[in-house]
Amino acid sequence: QAEGRLKQAGLWPNPEFELGGKNDSVFANEGEYDFATGFKQRFPITGRLKKAKAVARVDVAMALAEVRNQERLLAGEALGLSRELLVTQEKLKANQEIQGVIQKVIEVSEKRLKVAEVSAADVNSAKLELQRLALAQATLSNQQEIAATTLNRLLGREPQTPLQMSGATSAEFDTNTVAEISRQAIARRPDRQLAALGIDRAGAEIKLAKAEKWEDWTVGFDYSRSVGKFDAPIGTKTDNFLGVGVSIPLPFWNRNQGRVNEAQATQQRAEAELNALDLRIATEAQTAENQMRRLLDILRQYREESIKLAEENIALLQKGYADGLVTITAVIQAQQQLTDLRLSYLESL
User: What residues have CB less than 8 Å from 278, skipping those under 6 apart?
Assistant: First the structure.
């Protein structure tokens, strides 16, 4: 669309061909008539077409920036969904592993119940925990299906197209690289480039509005033939005329001042919007960078301290349960604690 407007902006107005005539057939019908033909062309002055093309060129640049911004947003949304799917797969895997552990605990407990080493309430507690995990598994599977359907749509595929995700999310990243990208955000973001081009466009509009203060001049050439009937001794008289004319609109009342003021206000607004966008981009980038650094520390604490400690605790409680030193309730509670820690870790990831 913008390229079409650019092409149109450089075109001259079409010439005008005039043809006219008159006769006295309705009145005296003496055979008198006038015939005229002419050619007129409007000539843009003050460089109006050049300035109109300057506006249209900025429109093309803005359209390209808008396309780049849509690509950025689409890529970001697709990448976010793909990472969500990877994390959901990790959650499903962790849930399945924990269900397997609880199932083994239940099998051992049911054998010990037969010899009255544990109570039925303890076995039921383990079964309830297994059911809770199964329900959580169903919820995660539903989330996975929704994310896969949405990602297929973003990729331009049918919603139910099979989607296989490979790889794994990483909790490690180069903090120096993140900081550098954060600093470059204002220069690299296409929506910021689009806003900056809005100022350029408004400036070009101001120049065009001022140029259009003077409307196009019209230059015309015409030929006319006149046949008149007179009394003798003149008789029939034929006259031929060749003329030239120039029409110059005078900017007395309309000097395009309204459009000039509008374009100037548009430029001021575009400058204010750019300043606001710069502030927002800088704030968003810095906030995201700070959040990544905080979450990285949280992930390390989960991985190196909390989860490791919970796994060691379960190993001790399972050994104690096997020796009859602790109850199954303690084992289940410890397992729940580990489950919550793993899911919280993945959520932070």
Answer: 186, 192
CA 301 to chain centre: 36
* Whole-number pLDDT of residue 34: 92
Cα distance between residue 156 and residue 151, in whole Å: 9
| Distance between start and end Cα atoms, the chain | 43
Q: What is the 3-state secondary structure (H, E, C) of 101-158?
A: HHHHHHHHHHHHHHCCCCCHHHHHHHHHHHHHHHHHHHHHHHHHHHHHHHHHHHCCCC
Contacts of 120 (CB under 8 A, 6+ apart): 113
Give the residue among 207, 204, 183 at the shortest CA–CA distance from 61: 204
Q: How confident is the model at residue 15 (pLDDT cuts 50, 70, 90)?
A: very high
The amino acid present at 2, given as its one-letter code, is A
Closest to 42 measured CA to CA, from 265, 260, 238, 215: 215
Say how many CA atoms lie within 13 Å of 212 toward its Cβ: 16
Handedness of CA 73, 76, 81, 82 (dihedral sign): positive
4: left (phi over 0), alpha (psi -120 to 50) or beta: alpha
CB 26 within 8 A of CB 223: no
pLDDT digits (tens, 9 = 90+) for 252-267: 999 999 999 999 999 9
SS3 (DSSP) at 176: helix
pLDDT tens-digit series, residues 313-329: 988 988 887 777 888 88
pLDDT category of residue 310 using cuts at 50, 70 and 90? very high
SS3 280: helix
What is the pTM for the complete model shown?
A: 0.78
- DSSP structure class, residue 242: E
CB of 211 closer than 8 Å to CB of 46: yes
User: What backbone phi and psi angles, to 5 degrees, belong to 323?
Assistant: -90, 0
- Please report the DSSP string for 9-41 in residue order: HTPPPPPEEEEEEEE-TTTT-SS-EEEEEEEEE
Long-range contacts of residues 251-256, Cβ cutoff 8 Å, at least 24 apart? 251/213, 251/214, 251/215, 255/213, 256/209, 256/210, 256/212, 256/213
